Amino acid sequence: MAEAHQAVGFRPSLTSDGAEVELSAPVLQEIYLSGLRSWKRHLSRFWNDFLTGVFPASPLSWLFLFSAIQLAWFLQLDPSLGLMEKIKELLPDWGGQHHRLRGILAAALFASCLWGALIFTLHVALRLLLSYHGWLLEPHGAMSSPTKTWLALVRIFSGRRLMLFSYQRSLPRQPVPSVQDTVRKYLESVRPVLSHEDFDWTAALAKEFLRLQASLLQWHLRLKSWWASNYVSDWWEEFVYLRSRNSLMVNSNYYMMDFLYVTPTPVQAARAGNAVHALLLYRHRLDRQEILPTLLMGMRPLCSAQYEKIFNTTRIPGVQKDHIRHLGDSRHVAVFHRGRFFRVGTHSRSGLLPPRALEQQFQRILDDPSPACPHEEHLAALTAAPRDLWAQVRRSLKTQAEDALEAVEGAAFFVSLDSEPQGLTREDPAASLDAYAHALLAGRGHDRWFDKSFTLIVFSNGKLGLNVEHSWADCPISGHMWEFTLATECFQLGYSADGHCKGHPDPSLPKPQRLHWDLPEKVHLSISLALRGAKTLSGDIDCHVFPFSHFGKSFIKRCHLSSDSFIQMALQLAHFRDRGQFCLTYESTMTRLFLEGRTETVRSCTKEACSFVNAMEDKGKTDPQCLALLRLAVDKHQALLKAAMSGQGVDRHLFALYIVSQFLHLQSPFLDQVHSEQWQLATSQIPVQQIHLFDVHNHPDYVSSGGGFGPVDDHGYGVSYIFMGDNTITFHISSKKSSTKTDSHRLGQHIEDALLDMASLFQEGKRLKQGCRGLGEDSGYRCGSLPCHSRGSRAPTTSTNF
């Protein structure tokens, strides 16, 4: 979600003095090290490979094969065609009484070799099948004969007992696109936003790049793609995330929200107990690989590598670059409440603590009257500071408060028990939702440990949320975990009639351990500086959240359009009305069709999109003309989206070419131009991946309301959206208050208007727009939605916020 900010900001980090030293290493050495890191990761997953690496067979299949060979041997048949006799001759002669043992060993060795060859053949066949992307390029709902044949073969070769990492060794590697195609697509993408003079200048730079440097840089990338698991992902993690020296708060971390209309219990400790228990159940399923691999459109597996670092993970600050620390296990969580830190054990001798016991521990913390020590209250603001400052201060903490620091960084995750209520309220729905988003994204700047893989935030009225660090994985991974957590804690674990967790307290449990920080004098000033910077950054963020519920995915599908592309065109129209011009638009999509793939950029501001927007603003254009242009724009967006997903995108290839040029110390004005671009509109859809966990028809309010991220540019917007069931779309908009060019609420109104104007191009949508306008004129309420700009509210059926 938030990688666009880092992608724009990574270039300055390459030109710092410390980074120049790092990049003076030979590029071939760096490629070799990338491959070495890949092979080390493969070796570290040996046990997973043993369990799932023989997929689609199983270890028991070896026993079946060995038994079949023994049976054939007993029937005086030789399935090895003499090979077992030759193997027996090579085995030591232990005497006549061991003659039968030599035969069994020979059969076992032959069975192992045959079994290994068969498994290898299956792996190669499955990898070749998964390299086919023709199905992705076909129209939705239409499936050609080759694709049907391919799908049948995939199902045959995929076996039956799927586990999380079953497909890992069969996934193809991400291809390196043709550099000529990438440059052509890039020029096509910037044509709508550049003047004729600027475009001609950029095209000349591109031509010079193709003539002088492209072939050499491309050769190095192809070499890396053959040797390493992924030609771009490790550099993306390092240079876009870990080398960034900016604050993680707002700039990199993102947030996930609770149910919008429902709070299952107002008891803060109870909600925390159930949520923590549900999260640890998810971790248990991860450890046992009981979570099924994600299958795109129910047939194509996605890479599961990012799931490995959800828990027990911390981003450790460094002077030149950070590193990710991941532990194999952790049996406690770190808890923050009113400026104090606690260590809460999550397991007893009999296993994971039940929710009621965890609630008891959290209630003990809430009831603890002890005050925070001097400067301890604001200590976590250091994790919101620039990374260089935090790295220097952490060295002092490492020596003076090692145990407390280890308790936090070694925790399964971080829990913040907030002293204030948050969430949707009837009295002021617009302001309450905006404040809720702001609290999740930034808080007060000192009450989240931004380095942890995620911070679970529990507000005083029982509302939940997550603040997620971005470097270890992308939003769909944390979203998958969050869906499981909300569904499990609400529907499976549940609450008693008085709002507490089910079960009984355990008085024998030791009290949570208060962490004590021996803070040296020189750290006090650093904490004050970090807190001041965090408050400034937090105070500059303008968050706006509104659910648009006048129509949703079902209406868009009835119009025979892609729901994501429809929203992207609405954002283009809304942004043009907001700023009066077109801009480069960053839409994040995934490349997890490939081994260790992460994200790619869809450049949504296309020539076709601009033509549609101009037509909508031209009163001389008829609805049929606008609709025809809308369909062309949607088709173009779908083509770009599918190309990006299949490894034929633009930005990751250009990024990797730029990194190689820096290692080789080759100056490329074209690549410099590419990476000096500003993304004034960054967008992301939050996918709903486990629809079966929620009953949107009988319980439509029990759906996650998505999340958001900070703006990419100082004068730009960050927009994320989620389809909540069939009839609601929730938008999360962010911008900076210091900018005179942006206003999150203003853009929100433009998005609503754009959606209704686009819907009115269809016969059914005309009635929707007329009804909405009438309602708006009569009552001032924002149509079909809660809270925007003081335009009224919709009361939920069940909510403890009201």
Q: Based on DSSP secondary structure assignment, what is the total number of beta strands? A: 20
Main structural class: alpha+beta
What CATH architecture label of the largest domain applies? 2-Layer Sandwich
Low-confidence blocks of residues = 15-22, 777-802
* Total count of domains: 3
Any idea what the shape is? globular
Helix % is 40-55%
Name of the CATH superfamily of the largest domain: Choline/Carnitine o-acyltransferase, domain 2
Highest CATH level, the class of the largest domain: Alpha Beta
Number of helices: 27
Query: In percent terms, what proportion of residues is strand?
Result: 5-15%
The name of the CATH topology of the largest domain is Chloramphenicol Acetyltransferase
Main beta sheet: 8 strands, mixed
- Rg to the nearest angstrom? 28 Å
The whole-number mean of residue pLDDT values reads 88
Distance between the termini: 31 Å
Major sheet strand order: 13-7-6-10-11-12-1-18
Main location: other
Keywords: Acyltransferase, Cell projection, Endoplasmic reticulum, Fatty acid metabolism, Hydrolase, Lipid metabolism, Membrane, Transferase, Transmembrane, Transmembrane helix
EC number: 3.1.2.22
Organism: Rousettus aegyptiacus
